[in-house]
Amino acid sequence: MKAAVTLLAVLAIGGTAFADIQQPPASDFGPTRKLGRGLGNVAFGVTEIPDSIFGVNYSEGNSAAWSYGLVRGVGRTFARLGYGLYEMATFPVPTVKGSYRPPYKSIVPWINGGYEEFPPELGWETRFNYVRDYQRTPW
Question: Signal peptide position in this chain (predicted)?
Answer without folding.
Answer: 1-19
